[in-house]
Automatic annotation (TrEMBL):
It is found in: Cell membrane. One of its GO terms (biological process) is lipoprotein localization to outer membrane. GO terms for cellular component: plasma membrane protein complex. PANTHER family: LIPOPROTEIN-RELEASING SYSTEM TRANSMEMBRANE PROTEIN LOLE. Residues 27-247 form the MacB-like periplasmic core domain. It is a multi-pass membrane protein. The chain crosses the membrane at residues 20-46, 274-300, 321-345, 376-396. This is ABC transporter permease. Residues 278-402 form the ABC3 transporter permease C-terminal domain. Belongs to the ABC-4 integral membrane protein family. LolC/E subfamily. The lineage of its organism: Bacteria, Pseudomonadati, Bacteroidota, Cytophagia, Cytophagales. Its main location: membrane. Keywords: Cell membrane, Membrane, Transmembrane, Transmembrane helix.
Length: 407
């Protein structure tokens, strides 16, 4: 029989007239409940935002991206490409030339990210399904077309159906500048706007897709490429194919998965989540100080009970554990309510979308939430640590009381 727990439970569930100790204990329990509920909800929101970022980028980014370790481009040839295509697990390899270029349309101009892609590019992503106007074909009837982001379209007033006004791309040539002929310092190629895509503002406001040969001619790249984008076959692990490609290509190349292509952004979310956890854990600690006060007052109120228990043979450890368990009951019952309500709120947000992000350009309207077991475990650990910190001093004080002074 666990005597300390039975006595602690008796003190907690006592049906005597409510006094200030009971009121403070209830306040402490409510504080722990609210703190743990807020902690679970906020951590779940960060999990949802992290998944939302991955979802947004998944329609644009490849499973694996091969780039040069140094410089912004690298040489390719038929043998090099065949070695990658024959690698087990590689389904599609798209060649990419990407760089900033000046885009002119009528009397307007802006700097855009021009991305020249091979014909199989749309086989490994969903960009073609994001076309809101025109078509996604970059080569049609032996004619080159560009796929333009909606933000770029708004900036330049581009009309995809207008065949009489082409888009002009300008890119600086690698020649000595001649002040008598400034236009000779730039390559200038025209292309018709074929379609408009809308994925996410970051891409819509900057990107224009063009055929690989068009970009190759404009930038004078020859067989150089800025990256190769790889789609992994469904029955293969991306991590294993990434490891095999790194081994095949050697130290001169980077092979990045989707998360590694946006390491800084995802790391920022994780760091912000960590600091939010620390902040809310501190708030939880402040709320739990009521446990300290209620236990301190309970020790004073139960001096005679402590003396009687000690005279009956109860050790200092037994008396200490009674008050530690009393604090644990207050904290854990409050935490149970808080975690339950937090889980309920997250489920309601997932199913009903109670809180909106309030951003017109967002790809989702309600705040995304995702509950993870790790968050519940971390919250539980935080509650245990906080409970121990606020309960240990009153418990030690009770254990050190003199029996003769109280009888």
């Amino acid at each position: 029989m666990n005597v300390p727990f039975l006595i602690a439970k008796r003190y907690f569930f006592s049906r005597k007239k409510r006094n200030i100790i009971s009121i403070i204990s209830n306040i402490a329990m409510i504080g722990v409940a609210v703190g743990s509920m807020a902690l679970i909800v906020v951590l779940s929101v960060f999990n949802g935002l992290e998944d939302l970022i991955r979802e947004i980028y998944s329609s644009f980014d490849p499973n694996l991206k091969i780039t040069a370790m140094e410089g912004k481009s690298f040489e390719t040839d038929t043998e090099f490409m065949n070695r990658i295509r024959k690698m087990p697990g590689v389904a599609v390899v798209s060649e990419v030339i990407e760089d900033n270029a000046l885009l002119r349309y009528n009397d307007r101009q802006m700097v855009v990210k021009m991305k020249g892609v091979s014909e199989n590019f749309f086989r490994q992503n969903d960009i073609d399904s994001s076309v809101v106007e025109g078509h996604s074909q970059l080569i049609l009837n032996d004619k080159y077309y560009a796929l333009v982001g909606r933000g770029v379209q708004y900036q330049l007033s581009i009309r995809p159906g207008n065949q009489f006004v082409p888009m002009q791309f300008l890119y600086p040539r690698n020649v000595k500048y001649n002040p008598l002929n400034p236009e000779g310092a730039f390559n200038n190629l025209s292309i018709a706007p074929g379609g408009i895509f809308a994925i996410e503002r970051q891409y819509d406001d900057a990107y224009v897709f063009v055929p690989l040969n068009f970009a190759e001619e404009l930038l004078e790249y020859g067989r150089r490429r800025t990256s190769l984008e790889v789609k992994v076959e469904p029955n293969y692990e991306i991590a294993q194919v990434q490891k095999d490609l790194k081994k095949l290509l050697g130290a001169g190349f980077k092979v990045q998965n989707s998360d590694e292509q946006h390491t800084s952004l995802l790391r920022a979310v994780k760091v912000e989540k960590l600091f939010v956890f620390i902040t809310f854990a501190f708030i939880l600690f402040i709320a739990s100080l009521n446990i300290f006060f209620s236990l301190s007052m309970l020790v004073i109120d139960k001096k005679k009970d402590i003396a009687i228990l000690a005279s009956m043979g109860a050790t200092a450890t037994t008396i200490r554990n009674i008050f530690l368990l009393e604090g644990a009951l207050v904290a854990f019952i409050g935490a149970a309510y808080g975690l339950s309500f937090g889980m309920l709120l997250c489920n309601l947000q997932q199913s009903l979308g109670l809180v909106s992000m309030g951003i017109a350009s967002s790809v989702v309207d309600p705040y995304p939430v995702k509950m993870e077991v790790d968050d519940f475990v971390l919250t539980g650990v935080a509650i245990i640590v906080v409970t121990l910190l606020v309960s240990i001093r009153p418990a030690l004080k009770a254990a050190s009381m003199s029996v003769t002074d109280q009888l």
